[in-house]
Amino acid sequence: QVQLVESGGGLVQAGGSLRLSCAASGTIFSISTKGWYRQAPGKQRELVAFITSGGITIYAESVKGRFTIARDNAKNTVYLQMNSLKPEDTAIYYCNLQRGNVNYWGQGTQVTVSS
């Protein structure tokens, strides 16, 4: 069984930075695709970024150049460095692990960006 625990969310002013972390239990971390998603109030959950087991990264257009996803396989942890934050980045951020057809989700961490 895989468990994901996110941390690092909080309140920040526009233009500021936050780093989210997601620690995973289990043994599939290094062979999984690891992603961050977010859900704003009244909106659907959307992909922010993901990194494959081979290290390929993909970003949503809205965060390109501002966010960076990285993983540390030795620590079973995936990170999301968020710079130049905007009020529209306000959402609950969820960590995701995908292996084949199976998805695992964290409980989410709130990010609030004030203008």
What keywords describe this structure?
0% helix; seven-stranded mixed beta sheet
Write structural notes for this entry:
With 115 residues, this protein is mainly β. It contains no helices and 11 strands. The protein has strands at residues 4-7, 10-13, 18-24, 33-39, 46-51, 57-59, 67-72, 77-82, 91-99, 102-105, 109-114. Strands 2, 4, 5, 6, 9, 10 and 11 form a 7-stranded mixed β-sheet that branches. A 4-stranded antiparallel β-sheet has the order 1-3-8-7, with no helix packed on it. The chain is globular and about 40 Å long. The termini are far apart. The model has no long low-confidence stretch (mean pLDDT 96).
Number of strands: 11
Alpha-carbon Rg, integer: 13 Å
**Overall geometry:** globular
Helix content: under 10%
Largest sheet: 7 strands, mixed
The sequence of SSEs as H and E is EEEEEEEEEEE
Poorly predicted spans: none
Q: Determine the mean pLDDT.
A: 96
Share of β-strand residues: over 45%
Number of alpha- plus pi-helical segments: 0
Structural category is mainly beta
Distance between the termini: 40 Å
